[in-house]
Write a structure and sequence with these properties.
44% helix
Length: 381
Amino acid sequence: SFHQWVRPIKIEDLLGRSEIHINMEEVMTEFCGKVVLVTGAAGSIGSELCRQLAQMNIRKLIMFDSAESPLHNVRLEFEKNYPGLDFVPVIGDVRVKERLRMVFDIYQPQIIFHAAAYKHVPLMEENPCEAVLVNVVGSRQVADMAVEYGAEKMIMVSTDKAVNPTNVMGCSKRLAEIYVQSLGCAIREGKVKGHTKFITTRFGNVLGSNGSVIPRFKEQIENGGPVTVTHPDIIRFFMTIPEACRLVMEAATMGEGNEIFVFEMGKAVKIVDLATRMIELAGYRPGEDIEIKFTGLRPGEKLYEEVLSDKENTIPTENKKIMIAKVRHYEYVDILDIYTEFEKLSRTVKIMDTVKLMKKVVPEFKSKNSPRFEVLDKQPE
């Protein structure tokens, strides 16, 4: 078996486009001298946000995560690579309100990047109450603390799967967007006391993130195949982790509050082409040395993700890679009880009731390839 790539893979090779670069100058001034909290700091996106923040002259970085070993590893990396950085790793869970309160109380963060989330579609389809508890209730608790402790901005990391969701994960992220956006609007209209601005960013699949397709293909190729793809026609929009994080930071700088920013993801990539290209780049012949095997779509999975940025559903900004999504407006006072209900249902693990409520609040959530929940779409009210 081989363990060495013939040459390192470059984004251009896989995506057929060049990397997105942004002007980091304005971004630097935005975060300079600030106390910044990153939730999900040990994850793929969270840790890269931390790496970029580490170079921005911030006052203090609070790295919050529930995963012990990953946070430990990130700490070791940062102690080694950024000896001048004042950072604090905190083990905690966005589901636990008092733990969040303690962090806000001690460190008084001014900027919050909320990247803590459950993200794997098939797993969340099987564990809907956990998806809601982390992605909906957790996001609400972070947002509420931000307001209570007077944070300037909270930037919520979302996903293209929140657009016309076909799975529990995507809908849970849409519900998080709805909460922070309606809270932000209520603050702006003087209906809720506070001054925190809420900004949401949505992007597609991230190349090489934990558990994603590239590391899996790499491992499959190293083991001599087969490389497994769910469907010959499945396509996804990809960007690299550093690209996604730079765009998140730029959006954070541009945002006046209550926007949902979407990123120009380039052209969709056929997953089978990605597999073929990786096999070739490793110096093998697809189908001869290494087999590509189709395994069938998984629950909640769709062939095509929604295009985030067509002319109908977005407004341009001065950065041609970043647009603002047009979304339905929800009134904060109208949704409060619903979110309390989400918390009750998810904490008591009422699975069908939780998903039923998700579909009621986000009517465009139609389950795909998920027999357990498709029933809920068929029932007349």
